[in-house]
Design goal:
The complex is a heterodimer of chains A (209) and B (83). By secondary structure, chain A is α+β, with helices and mostly antiparallel strands. Chain A is built from seven helices and five strands, in the order αααβαβββαβαα. Helices cover 58% and strands 12% of the residues of chain A. The chains are: A alpha+beta (209), B alpha+beta (83).
Chain lengths: 209, 83
């Protein structure tokens, strides 16, 4: 009886170890990484909880700075559209567009995409970052919403200066143009629904529900 | 007036606060403003236009900060990315 129990216990432990070993392995690996990071002089390695709290603070700051419509756009679609030409456009682009309204799509940690809202034509990708080389937690990357706010403020405050600092590329270099076209379509639909809600009339989607 | 700085892994951080009308505070704010710009930060001031739209201004000197503003946001200067 005792032997049978011992054998059963050994089998159970062996089976459980298959499941639990990866967990302990990850913990050990994380511990080793933390120790190495401390040795390398990094104050604190990546901490998802800290990053989430930082992002939450950044979202509050973004909300307090941008217009209500822009905040709703970011919350619902994950991007903000900013109209161009508010503080002076680079001369080359200005000549090319001949007064046609253009806009930018701001994504977190992705290039800014310039496009023509009337036709949906993509103009350029402006690759720009805001690296903080003090790296307080080992990374120079701002929280997503801070990155969006930095782009928004820079475009609002000095479009020419931001564009001059950015690396200019044709559309499709980093962001799939099909995704951008989809986002432009989603944005149009979002705006229509928002207008309908404000006017108090049900849209076609809701009318059929 | 509050000076806020965006920081990786942190969100915004209050780095200075004071009343620019008070000489002692103003001096401290000017000093901090210069220090941030020397560290390569850009300074932006959220403003509301006459039409009620929220906008932002980039300021390069303490004197350019609108007197009505209650906060200045510092963030790392733009650099071309992923070339």
């Amino acid at each position: 009886m005792t032997i049978a129990l011992c054998v059963t216990a050994i089998v159970v432990i062996a089976l459980l170890s298959d499941i639990t070993w990866p967990y302990f392995d990850r913990r050990l690996e994380a511990r080793r990484e933390r120790r190495e990071a401390r040795k390398a002089g990094v104050a604190a390695p990546y901490d998802p909880g800290r990053e989430r709290r930082a992002e939450q603070r950044a979202r509050e700051l973004l909300k307090s700075c941008v217009n209500e419509e822009e905040w709703a756009m970011y919350r619902d679609l994950g991007l903000i559209r900013v109209w161009g030409g508010q503080t002076g456009l680079p001369a080359d682009t200005s000549r090319d567009l001949r007064g046609v309204p253009y806009a930018y799509l701001i994504y977190p940690h992705k290039p800014i995409v310039a496009y023509l809202p009337q036709t949906g034509q993509l103009l350029n990708e402006y690759c720009v970052e805001f690296p903080d080389e003090t790296r307080p937690f080992g990374s120079p990357r701002l929280p997503d919403s801070d990155d969006v706010l930095a782009k928004w403020m820079a475009l609002q405050g000095d479009e020419r200066r931001l564009i001059a600092e950015a690396n200019l590329h044709l559309p499709g270099r980093q962001i799939d143009p099909r995704q951008v076209q989809r986002d432009i379509w989603r944005l149009g639909r979002w705006e229509r629904e928002r207008l309908e809600r404000r006017a108090g009339t049900p849209g076609p989607d809701r009318a059929t529900q | 007036m509050k000076f806020l700085r965006m920081r990786p892994g942190h969100g915004e951080q209050l780095i200075a606060e004071g009343d620019p009308e008070v000489a002692e505070d103003a001096e401290r704010l000017v000093e901090e403003f210069r220090r941030q710009l020397d560290q390569g930060m850009w300074a932006a001031v959220p403003v509301t236009s006459e039409t009620g739209r929220r906008e932002a201004e980039l300021v390069r000197a303490f004197e350019e900060i609108p007197s009505t503003t209650d906060r200045v946001i510092f963030f790392p200067r733009a650099a071309g990315g992923a070339a």
